[in-house]
C-alpha cells in the first residue's frame, strides 16, 4: 500500500529548504567578511544591499549591529577618496593579523585551551597552537564534507572564516542535530571570548566591532532555531 503525497508535507519541506538556504547565505557572508580585506567594489555592493540589512531589524538581538555595519559600509562607499577603504584595510590588519596578544586573532586554537607545551619562544608557541589539534580537527571536517581551502587562503583550518563557511555548507547538507552540534562545539565554544577581545580594540571604523557583535548574536539565534 502506498501513501499519497501530502501537499502540506511538501510545503513544509520547501519552507525548511528555503530557510536553510537563507541561513547558509548569512553564514557565508560572515565568512567572507572575516576572510579578507574589503575591496572598493565589495564595499559598494554591501552598502547597496539595504534590503538585506533591513531584514535583520525584525530581530532585536541583531538590529543594532546590523545598522552599525550598514552605516559603516555606506560611509565608506560614499567617501570621495580611497582613504575609507584604506582605513578599513588597516582596521582588518589591526584586528586580525597582528600578534595574537594584541589583536582578536580569529583562530579557535587560541581560545579553546589547547596545550601548546612549554615553548619559551612566543612565535613558536603560537605557531604550534595554530597548527595543532583544532587545525587538524577542522581539516578533517573539511575532508569529510568534500571541501578544501582556496589556494590563495593561506590560513590554518581553524580560522573563523573557514569554520563559518563550513557552517554554511552544513545548513543545506547536514541534519539538524549535526548542525547544532557543530555550531555549539566549533563556534559558540569560543566566539564569545573572541568577540570580547574584538570589542576592546580601538579601531578607525565601527565595522569590525559591529561585525563581531552581529556574528555572535546570529550564532546564538541560529542555535535557538536549530533547537526548535
TrEMBL record:
One Pfam family per UniProt: Nitrate_red_del
GO cellular component terms given for this protein: cytoplasm
BP GO annotations: protein complex oligomerization; protein folding
Keywords, ordered alphabetically: Chaperone, Cytoplasm
Main subcellular localisation: cytoplasm
Function: Involved in the biogenesis of TorA. Acts on TorA before the insertion of the molybdenum cofactor and, as a result, probably favors a conformation of the apoenzyme that is competent for acquiring the cofactor.
Sequence similarity: Belongs to the TorD/DmsD family. TorD subfamily.
Protein's name in the database: Chaperone protein TorD
Species: Shewanella zhuhaiensis
Gene: torD
Amino acid at each position: 500500500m502506498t501513501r499519497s503525497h501530502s501537499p502540506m508535507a511538501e510545503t513544509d519541506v520547501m519552507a525548511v529548504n528555503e530557510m536553510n538556504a537563507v541561513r547558509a547565505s548569512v553564514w557565508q557572508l560572515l565568512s567572507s567578511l572575516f576572510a579578507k580585506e574589503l575591496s572598493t567594489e565589495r564595499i559598494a555592493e554591501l552598502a547597496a544591499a539595504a534590503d538585506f540589512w533591513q531584514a535583520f531589524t525584525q530581530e532585536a538581538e541583531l538590529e543594532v549591529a546590523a545598522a552599525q555595519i550598514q552605516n559603516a559600509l555606506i560611509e565608506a562607499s560614499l567617501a570621495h577618496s580611497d582613504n575609507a577603504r584604506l582605513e578599513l584595510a588597516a582596521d582588518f590588519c589591526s584586528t586580525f593579523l597582528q600578534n595574537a596578544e594584541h589583536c582578536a586573532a580569529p583562530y579557535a586554537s587560541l581560545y579553546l585551551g589547547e596545550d601548546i607545551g612549554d615553548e619559551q619562544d612566543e612565535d613558536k608557541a603560537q605557531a604550534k597552537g595554530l597548527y595543532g589539534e583544532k587545525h587538524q580537527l577542522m581539516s578533517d571536517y573539511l575532508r569529510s564534507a568534500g571541501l578544501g581551502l582556496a589556494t590563495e587562503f593561506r590560513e590554518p583550518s581553524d580560522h573563523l572564516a573557514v569554520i563559518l563557511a563550513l557552517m554554511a555548507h552544513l545548513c543545506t547538507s547536514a541534519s539538524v542535530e549535526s548542525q547544532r552540534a557543530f555550531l555549539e562545539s566549533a563556534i559558540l565554544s569560543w566566539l564569545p571570548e573572541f568577540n570580547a577581545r574584538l570589542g576592546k580594540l580601538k579601531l578607525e571604523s565601527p565595522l569590525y566591532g559591529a561585525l563581531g557583535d552581529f556574528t555572535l548574536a546570529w550564532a546564538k539565534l541560529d542555535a535557538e532555531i536549530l533547537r526548535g
